[in-house]
Amino acid sequence: MPVYHAIRQFYARCVDIVFPRWCVGCGAEDESLCDRCMTAWSGPWWRAESNAQYLLQVDAAGEDIAVFPVWGKAWYQGVVADSVIAWKNRADRRLDCAFAQLVLGILSELDIDGAFPAARWDRVVIVPVASSRARKHQGRFVTGVIARSVGKQMGAPVVDGLRKGNTRLRLRNARDRAVKSREQYAVRDFSGRDVILVDDVLTTGATLNGAQKAITQAGGRVVGAVVLAVTDHP
Length: 234
Known about the structure:
The chain has nine helices and nine strands. The chain is an alpha/beta fold.
């Protein structure tokens, strides 16, 4: 074993002695996200955009059509919700690594070519939706962690090209969601690029809708999205 890796393992063990860790899903000791809780993402991938009102348009026949496909792997409830919430609210490199491995594993089950039929793979880039500047500064840029795993699995570059405005909302109603869909903007030129967006949780689709508008204004084309969890609306 290389000396560098041995030192890292020794340091990690020391940190766990001083700062014990528990699984964010079930509380099991000495785990960041245990194997049992990872099985909460063991179901099949499915097209989730029909759950998100901001990702649907009405065609000439009056039917709802999706703006682009969004693939989800688990419902945002129980262990999944507890794990994601805990992850978003702490800066923990080992937890980042646990979720990165989770994403790599579940993405291996997705038929990438079939999932994004409009994608021109020589032009595809993976783009995480924007987080606040404070979250990124504090090391809690979870969509960036997910995006890097998606990019690695798909063999596509990751471009952190979106930023979030300073709007602070409690998201109490549809009007607040509409404002949320306008708070993202592009800081990169996406001309000629096909973009696959990445987010942690899909609720109404307002965030993905805002990201899609920003990408389009910057010359790109969104061909799909991947999310870690989907809110089940009543």
